[in-house]
Amino acid sequence: MLSDGELILVAGALLAAGWLASLIAERFRLPALVLFLGLGMAIGSDGTDWIDFEDYELARRIGVITAAAILFEAGLAAGFAEIRPVLRPAVSLATVGTFITAAITGLAAVWLFDFSLLQGLLIGSILAATDSAAVFALLRQVRLPGKLSRTLEAEAGMVDPFAVLLVITFIKLIDEPGFGALDVVWLFVAQLGVGAIAGIGIGWLGLRSLQLVEGLAYRGLHLVGSVAAMALAYGTADVLGGSGFLAAYLAGLVFGSGRLPEKGAVRAFHSGLASLSDIALFLALGLLVFPSQLGSVLVEGTLLALIIAFLARPVAAALATAFERFNARERLILGWAGLRGALPVFLATFPVTDGVPRSLEFFNIVFFAVLVSTLVQGATVAPLARWLGIARARPKPVSEAEARA
């Protein structure tokens, strides 16, 4: 057992390492996910054994908290005014596109790993999730046309609740033989309906409360109020049988759309909280990975990742946006920019904690597929966009001191 001081020291060292990895990733245009997961693997049980961590349930709980923080920030950063012009393609990509990606990936998994159809669709649903943090990091590197950029941003925030719902549905279909079509319909209606009502309702109440005390509360209390709204939205929806992830995103969207006191400070705070959540989630998931076990899924995991990148996502994006006004080059970017990230690895803990057969194999397959997807797609989207002539690199940020000089 570590003392309090040792625990705080370890936490500080891990955060410092994550911060340094983020700087390296930004400097050399590397996928930060790979560095974070690599750090977790290096210090885990199968690496240097500095931290012995095999608790999938704890990792899942960490993932729930961090995902809620990331989704709230995604909504806060966007605001409804930004996503209204692209609402139709974004919703279509997040729902129809996610389902098509899950179906194609699931059938490929059945073929590659000899899974049952439900097992294949479960792993397809896990891998259908994109990653809002990865997409936002990508959009910081390259300037895309306004409609294309906003569509990717909006999809990244909306897709995660739907992907989580698909994962929960297929776990229930595997674990509960009597779970039928009507149960699936009711699950979707309850999750999406309750999640939407809780997110919008609590988001509005939270925003209105901050507006009413604007002249009474100092800046720090506004930050506390925004975190409280995020937690209340997620918790209320989840307790009532709805999607807490959808509620967190919509609550953030309400905050980002209204007149929010100290809006700059609140957005900066939640941006930092989302970055901290990203690092914590990546490290926790990296600790769960045992590199010695990945060899058994090396070839098949690589093939599955390539099928997602070159077939499942492009087909899904093309069908989901078939009636939208994107040109051929923009459609190519839409099909290539469905980045896998920490969320699929987090979702892969769900079958493990629920005791689904072959779930540990799922986890290793998902991890490897995400790793390949991140290295291949994450490193090539920006160069591809510039090569197609629809984007250019963002200018180097200028500090306030440099601007005044």
Question: Can you tell me about this structure?
Answer:
With 405 residues, this protein is an all-alpha fold. It has a single domain, classed as Na+/H+ antiporter like fold. It is 77% helix and 1% strand. The protein has helices spanning 4-28, 32-43, 56-78, 80-83, 87-113, 117-128, 132-141, 146-175, 181-212, 219-239, 244-257, 263-288, 298-320, 328-336, 342-347, 349-353, 359-378, 381-387, 400-404, and strands at 142-143, 392-393. A two-stranded antiparallel sheet has the order 1-2. Helix 2 crosses helix 12 and helix 9 (181-212) packs antiparallel against helix 10 (219-239). It is globular. The termini are far apart. 48% of the residues are buried.
